[in-house]
Backbone:
């Protein structure tokens, strides 16, 4: 039997009624001839409740105990889903992470999957079981303790199972009906994409389009897992949702696939840094040690022997970044005149594999922004992405202008 | 280090604040020089919520999935208790049943403990861990599935750990401060017992004094585990609670230790049964097959070749008993004129190991009931117990009269 992986997120299993609706979708795929591996999240709200308990009990918690506590919500959903399927006369059973076993590293609360031996579940499929319901987000460490994969880790669980079992496809059921050219709340011209390339999805995921966890997309790309994102409340036909796939599987595509944005950006500038070989390491080493996620970096030569260094980071890490820089200055590791933080910025990006073969995307983007009178503060580019930092008040306008200029409302 | 087992029930860990108070008690015993094994129940209400989910999902549920779901509440409490102890700088970690491993039979939702290998936990004590927090009520089957021990199974978990680890004592912390001579809500003369023999506790437990699960007392008796029942809201001194122990450890005791009652009894009479060898088996076999828990049995010869057969069972099993009897009659296995159910009865019992060596307890009991004008419908006796079935409206009066006549308000 071909194997299909279906993942249901927290809102899709939030109540017994929703679990029942999700189970009906599983039943359809069983009727279609698949052996199905279902990955479930906790009922929405449960994990937050458990995390709240842990944080209230112990602010600097032992991550091993955190994992033991917060993983329990998925166990409940897995059992209830198996029972629901059994009521529909579909042979099913639940599996907790340690039962599979889903082997991970010992990095508690942010563990990485090392191995998923398929034997146990395959043996049950061989005995006539049609659905293996697996508790997402959790695994077991080499020491035999329960681990979790970090928030959103159930997407990663699903893709890892699809890879380990050679599944025909991995369907991620969620509360949106696919990946859009941009956020429909910002542009009413936003269009659902039927297909998107892994690389594009990766850029969009890490740029703040919260449809899929970045790691799950990376994993799908590495193991060539066909990944589909679709709504658990909509249709189930062939064209439902968005297929995330290899770029060869996309016959025609727009140069730009989508416009992403991120509101939570801050721009920080170290003014008049004494320049010398190794100065970048002297700045960004302490920032990394302080847990600051630096995104964009720009260096301008201001005068002979001195430079301005600008970087961006999430708004809530500004205080931490300032502390790290001032400490490095006091220690004599770096020397700068001033540190200026601008928390009124936003990042807007255009993403598309078509950029590789089409020149002029950057020029078109910059012109469109200029025409709207939007000043660009920082620019970074990759092979398939151009990002700019702008004043936050222009963010929606920029997204709409870029969506228009690249004609994303039209399918290719 | 000597080992102590401490068990906290659902009301003792109902909130983070209560978990913290329970943890302080554990801290006292650690300071007293013990290595402590803490057994925890789920936060009160959690297990009922999960059972509700399962029953709503699947009325005839797969007990394996039931166990996977309902065991999760204890995992949460175990992790939170370990974190609370760590905050108090007491080295602690949580263990789920399968991690210990607590090995059970495959009788899901009513599994029996087969083995608790102490090596893993002892190794951690050897490394300096002071407290092992174990999720109660759960274990692992030979097939690697999660099992549960039945409601109240955390008491049994605690006693089994005390036996497996040769613990000095097993302290059961609950919401009452010990075992009473009778229910204080029925008689204001009820007195807390400092000590009670295993055999007496066993009779009281199975008679409806809901302080300890019957199986935990059986297990404690078999392995000579000193069991103490005490309140998690009261004092912690030597004399707190009630010690359940071997009768040799009780120097002086009253002839009668306590008066128990059970409201949920029904009296059923098969009138004019055609008597023949094997008729008892023909009646009680089908009742057992139908899952009816028959308690008392009385047979009266009514006329030549016919007999009246009376038995008692829980009120909510009357319909099932009637169905089983009528089916057996239709099948020609038994023959009776009528089946009369009386659901307005209650059972009252006096229990005491002193009865073995003191004659006249039964006569004293029957006289006391006669003096109150209470008619006895059925009598059964064991070596250390006399039970009577009476009209339910006289239940409180009977309990009070028996408490008085045996002077239970006075310590021996």
Residues:
């Amino acid at each position: 039997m071909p194997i299909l992986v279906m993942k249901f997120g927290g809102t899709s299993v939030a109540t017994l009624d929703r679990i029942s609706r999700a189970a009906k979708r599983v039943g359809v795929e069983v009727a279609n001839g698949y052996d199905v591996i279902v990955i479930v999240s906790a009922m929405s709200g449960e994990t937050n409740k458990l995390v709240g308990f842990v944080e209230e009990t112990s602010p600097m918690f032992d991550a091993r105990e955190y994992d033991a506590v917060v993983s329990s919500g998925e166990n409940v959903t897995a059992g209830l889903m198996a029972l629901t399927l059994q009521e529909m006369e579909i042979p099913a059973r639940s599996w907790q992470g340690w039962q599979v076993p889903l082997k991970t590293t010992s990095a508690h609360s942010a563990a990485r999957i090392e191995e998923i031996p398929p034997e146990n579940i395959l043996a049950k499929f061989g005995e006539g079981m049609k659905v293996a319901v697996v508790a997402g987000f959790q695994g077991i460490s080499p020491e035999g303790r329960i681990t979790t994969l970090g928030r959103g880790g159930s997407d990663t669980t699903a893709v890892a199972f699809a890879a380990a079992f050679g599944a025909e496809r991995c369907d991620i059921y969620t509360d949106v009906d696919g990946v859009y050219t941009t956020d429909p709340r910002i542009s009413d011209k936003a269009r659902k994409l039927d297909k998107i390339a892994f690389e594009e999805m990766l850029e969009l995921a890490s740029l703040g389009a919260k449809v899929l966890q970045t790691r799950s997309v990376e994993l799908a790309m590495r193991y060539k897992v066909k990944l589909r994102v679709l709504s658990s409340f909509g249709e189930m036909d062939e064209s439902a949702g968005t297929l995330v796939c290899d770029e060869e599987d996309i016959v025609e595509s727009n140069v730009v696939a989508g416009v992403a944005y991120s509101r939570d950006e801050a721009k920080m500038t170290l003014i008049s840094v004494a320049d010398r070989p190794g100065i970048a390491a002297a700045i960004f080493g302490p920032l990394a040690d302080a847990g600051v996620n630096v995104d964009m970096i720009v260096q301008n030569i201001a005068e002979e022997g001195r430079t301005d260094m600008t970087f961006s980071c999430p708004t809530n890490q500004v205080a931490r970044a300032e502390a790290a820089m001032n400490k490095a200055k006091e220690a004599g590791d770096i020397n700068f005149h001033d540190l200026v933080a601008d928390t009124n910025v936003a990042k807007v990006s255009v993403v598309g594999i078509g950029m590789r073969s089409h020149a002029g995307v950057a020029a078109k983007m910059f012109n469109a922004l200029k025409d709207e009178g939007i000043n660009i503060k920082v620019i970074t580019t990759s092979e398939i992405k151009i990002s700019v930092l702008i004043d936050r008040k222009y963010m929606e306008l920029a997204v709409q202008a870029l969506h228009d200029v690249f004609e994303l409302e039209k399918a290719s």
